Task: inverse folding
């Protein structure tokens, strides 16, 4: 300890203190402050950039989710529309079928009616014809009776047979 | 020959560890025996060599008034180097070149006063250079205030200039790009380390900024000057107690003048202890504030001095052994120790910075309930 105090050089202490404080002040102004500021700026820049990237990522995810949702909606809507169209088509087809059936039924009925009436008319005609023929036959028979009895009978028979055919 | 060495090294590597230890121990014992044998023949010569080495180491550890790189011829006083200015305050400023001392061989005469070098110190003498001693063999000559630009001051200057150059350049490089360029790539991680792992954890995010300049300067100053001490230039600035004292007193002053109320309260009126204890603790705590920077001063001084003494002693052993085993062995030891000293150079800078930060942290610590 005594030797240490003996060795102590005030001059060296003085210069060390002076130079150290001088270099400390100069470095603070020209080196440490600019360096630390630059580093801090860079760090905050990196932090901001990272945060921005994170935000962008989140936004991107949101956008993707949105578009996904929209796509889903659109798909659902399309499906619904197709379904509706199909139903409408089926309905229309079945309606048309029903209508056609009804029309056809009506026409068939009309045709049946027409046929019936035609038939009635034809039967009436035949009846008239038969009556006329009967009258003619009766006339001829009467005329034949008046000439030959046998012939007259035969004729009557024939006539009757003809009538049967009808 | 080449192949032989290779196989030898290979087999050596395959040997278990204890075999190696045994080998080293045997070698050491062998040298010892050999050295003892030699001791009888030339013990006298050896004694003078030992004291010469001791003197050389002692001389190496001291500051000097001239810049001597090495001595060619001790007898004829031939040295390679250059003189440095001597600045004295002895009833007025006296400035002269240290070449007047002729490496301590002669008395320098300035304005009718005579000065001589005595154990690296300048003392006032008469024309013959008489040194007066007291009973305890201490020189009683008047010692004028010595502000000389000594070898160590030159190196402090150089390191200061180097730091200014390096860091101002580094700061400038940030203007052109956000990333460091050149030497800044090496220095920036260190600066960030000091900020993130020394300053912020010890001082806290709120206050660390005002201490950053001091912490960075003190770290790089001690580190660079310690590294320069390991070069063959033979300067060790940090093994001067005056230098470490100057650094420690700065830490003390900064701690004291930036301390808040809480810090003083913990020293003079320790909270949460009985009144009696408060009175007992106050002087202890007050003493503690001085002991802290004192320990900083002694730690740095002692570590660097011890490192240099051991390293140079081992180097000196090379000249004492003077045989084909001892000298390479002491060279190997010196080499390993140099590597260790490289670590110590950085470690002491780290410890000084770390503890300074710790003291600053305690000075600005906010009050919190225990």
Result:
């Amino acid at each position: 300890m005594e030797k240490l105090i003996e060795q102590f050089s005030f001059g060296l202490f003085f210069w060390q203190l002076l130079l150290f404080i001088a270099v400390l002040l100069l470095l603070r102004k020209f080196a440490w402050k600019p360096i630390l500021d630059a580093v801090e700026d860079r760090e905050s820049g990196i932090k901001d950039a990272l945060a921005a990237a994170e935000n962008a990522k989140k936004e991107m995810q949101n956008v993707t989710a949105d578009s996904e949702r929209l796509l889903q909606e659109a798909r659902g809507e399309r499906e619904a529309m197709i379904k509706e169209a199909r139903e409408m088509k089926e309905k229309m087809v079945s309606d048309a079928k029903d209508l056609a059936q009804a029309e056809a039924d009506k026409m068939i009925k009309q045709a049946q009616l027409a046929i019936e009436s035609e038939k009635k008319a034809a039967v009436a005609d035949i009846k008239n014809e038969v009556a006329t023929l009967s009258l003619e036959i009766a006339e001829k028979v009467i005329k034949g009776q008046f000439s030959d009895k046998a012939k007259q009978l035969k004729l009557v028979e024939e006539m009757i047979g003809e009538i049967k055919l009808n | 020959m080449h192949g032989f060495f290779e196989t030898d090294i290979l087999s050596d590597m395959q040997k278990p560890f204890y075999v190696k230890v045994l080998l080293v121990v045997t070698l050491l014992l062998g040298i010892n025996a050999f050295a003892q044998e030699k001791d009888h023949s030339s013990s006298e010569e050896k004694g003078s060599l030992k004291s010469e080495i001791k003197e050389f180491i002692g001389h190496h550890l001291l500051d000097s008034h001239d810049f001597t790189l090495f001595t060619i011829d001790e007898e004829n006083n031939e040295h390679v180097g250059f003189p440095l200015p001597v600045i004295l305050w002895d009833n007025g400023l006296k400035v002269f070149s240290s070449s007047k001392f002729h490496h301590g061989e002669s008395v320098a005469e300035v304005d009718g006063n005579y000065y001589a070098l005595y154990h690296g110190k300048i003392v006032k003498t008469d024309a013959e250079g008489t040194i007066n001693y007291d009973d305890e063999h201490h020189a009683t000559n008047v010692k004028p205030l010595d502000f000389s630009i000594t070898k160590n001051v030159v190196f402090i200057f150089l390191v200061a200039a180097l730091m200014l150059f390096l860091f101002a350049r580094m700061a400038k490089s940030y203007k052109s790009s956000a990333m460091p360029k050149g030497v800044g790539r090496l220095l920036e991680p260190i600066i960030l380390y000091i900020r993130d792992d020394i300053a912020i954890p010890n001082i806290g995010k709120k206050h660390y900024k005002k201490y950053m300049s001091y912490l960075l300067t003190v770290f790089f100053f001690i580190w660079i000057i310690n590294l320069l001490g390991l070069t063959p230039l033979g300067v060790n600035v940090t093994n001067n107690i005056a230098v470490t004292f100057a650094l420690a007193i700065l830490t003390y002053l900064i701690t004291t003048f930036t301390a808040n109320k809480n810090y003083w309260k913990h020293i003079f009126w320790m909270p949460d202890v009985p009144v009696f204890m408060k009175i007992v603790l106050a002087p202890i705590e007050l003493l503690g504030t001085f002991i802290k920077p004192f320990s900083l001063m002694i730690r740095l001084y002692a570590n660097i001095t011890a490192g240099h003494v051991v390293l140079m002693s081992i180097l000196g052993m090379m000249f004492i052994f003077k045989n084909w085993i001892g000298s390479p062995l002491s060279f190997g030891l010196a080499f390993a120790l140099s590597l260790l000293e490289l670590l110590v150079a950085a470690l002491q800078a780290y410890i000084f910075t770390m503890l300074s930060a710790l003291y600053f942290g305690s000075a600005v610590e906010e009050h919190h309930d225990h």
Chain A has one domain: 31-165. Chain A has a mean pLDDT of 88.
